[in-house]
Amino acid sequence: MRSPPSLQGSVWRVGLFSLLYLYQGIVAGFALTALANHFAASGTSAAEVGRHLAVVGLPWVAQPLLWGPLVDRAVPFRMGPRRAWLVLSLAGAQACLAGLLLLGPAAGLTAISVVLFLHSLAASLADTATDRMIAGSVPAGELGRTSAATRAGFVIGSAAGTALFAWILEARGFPAAAGALLGLTTPLAAAAVLVREAPGDRFLSLRRGPARGEGPAEERVAWSSFARRLLASFRGRDAAILLALCFAIDLGLALFQVPFAVAMVQVHGWEAGALSRLQALLALLGGTLGAAGIGAYVDRAGPGPALRALLLACAAAFAAAAGLIAAGLEAAAGPVILGLVGVVPALLYVALLPTVLLASRDGRASATQFQIYMAAMNLGDVAGAGAAAPVASVVGPALVALGVAGLFLACARLAPAGTA
User: Fold this and answer.
1) How many structural domains is the chain composed of?
2) Is the pTM above the cut of 0.85?
């Protein structure tokens, strides 16, 4: 008899992980781009938009403390040690998206932020389980291609979600957009039910213990032992620098991108829908064709050289953006600037993910290790979104872009020797 779909097959691995990141991208396109641009067009300030982005992103910052130890220490379920958490969390996430329909056509940004905050809590647990499944099932020689596939899934979802929901919000209003979001994401969430971690796992079962006589059930790891393993994994210099890199990358991007997008609508007269579609197109180009090329390069040359090269490319992109703004071309060259500061950093993540995965493969603590690195990125994004408006009020966009270029240059210089 043919084995059921499982992560032992390369096609099933890439397919499932791509669909799960496609799910994340669609929600991000709605919540973080189309919705933010929609409210910016209605007069919402950059500070309020930044607060919305920070609230929605907060659970992703707390992800390692919330979910990493839960996934790492739990006694495995018969349907798979991580897959059970994935299925349960996606069910909760879909329930939260259904809650958006209860807010009505006059929903304010604050109420929407609260519901999306709850969704982020559930989705961050799903992401923790997904990343633990990637770390446990993907061979080292396939990490670049897997990273490219997941990045492409996220970017395609984000681009499609941004463009589609920008149009629906403008033409049909918030309730129609919320309904479309629920309808699009439910089939993607259901994919987690179909692909098992191992062929012998139960299709659906919340009972603890091994599946089909695979031996005695694993015991829950003691907190003291788990904490010692986790602390030991971050004692080295390279781990500390990699944490700092993860934080700095997203901090710099948010500091420039949030106020620049708001200014394009409120100062330079762009329509919110047109801006969203442009951002979606740029992200799509970088996250598909570009990601495939970078993924192949990572597997051939190693994550380190690719990571350093992309950090230098980001520094050059922001320096070029600073030059265009300083020359007074901010309005006319808006699409070019958005391309420079959006496409190149999107490619950076394709090299960054394998670097972080290789630094996180430490047995039963790997989910928490990986999520601490990811939380550093999310913390940088939240901190940058929250600080973007105050910084923009005292520093011009050209200087902000130049500062971000310098930040990426420093990151390239300080990249740990083990990753380069």
Assistant:
1) 1
2) no
